[in-house]
Amino acid sequence: MSQLLRTDRLSLRPCQMSDLEALHQLWTEADVRRFLFDDRQITNEEATSFIESSVTSFERYGYGIWLFFDHQSDQIAGFSGLLHSSQNPPSLIFGTRPQLWGRGYAKEATLAVLRYMFDVLGLERVEADVDEPNNASIRVLEALGMSRTRRAIVNENPLLYYELQTWEREATENDPQPNNCVVPEMMINVRPYESTDWSRLCEIHDTSRLDELRLTVGKDAFLTLEQTAESEGLFENKLFVAEVDNVVQGFVAYSDEELTWLYVDPECYRKGVGRALVQHAVAHSTPVMEIELLEGNTPALELYLSEGFKVVKRVEGQLVGNEAFAAVGLVLKREDT
User: For residues 334 and 337, what is the distance between their CA atoms, to the nearest angstrom?
Assistant: First the structure.
């Protein structure tokens, strides 16, 4: 069951320990912590505990805290998710980076979470509580179709309580519809490579490789996948493809310790396909994973950095697979602790 969610503008994935620094920074911003933590600046250890609880919740119950990203950026735009309770229905939580307020991201992301909760997990009820002065969050809850159930004073603060028991699809009627590669959530399917995928892999590689070379050493260094697959050991690695509506739109190859190939159809750039493939490789590798990419490939670098990789080395030499061209590579490493 995929926990990667998609909307017209956003990609959502479960938070993980490699997000600690970025999340702690977000959660301690004054405009975020005001209502989220009663204006208290939480410690790094508390943020760690929240992330650990979310990771455990995903493993046990299928839900937790998702981070969401605008398709045009790899910076965390906000978070939305469900907090587990042993005695009550899950509780909704969400927040958006203050610089992005007013764009409707909180509603859009939380709709994706609710769709997943009701349609995939089969849960029947969700609750939420909000500080009475938090008018922005109240508007989001009511736009989602949640009903106010009561008011209470907790720790001298007035709280409003909401619930949603019936999945009202009317809340999504005015949402923009997906185009041919802005896909509905949970429609990216990562599966093992099959021999019948070969021609499609060649198409994807040959078009996206040209984009990569334009940003780096120049398109004169281009070689097709037919020319390089065997010499560069494509099939010596674990090879998986990503499908969107049963059409292969990207592929990844990796060993236990290295991500060696990653290409996505240009029509699906920044649509979550590459991120889904990276997350699959990371989840099925050892705790330490490396990748080398060409310096200048900024879109790929931003993706890897957002997934917890760090640049550890800069290497000058020849282009792998076409040694007639000089190239500069960046070695990135990701370590799960």
Answer: 10
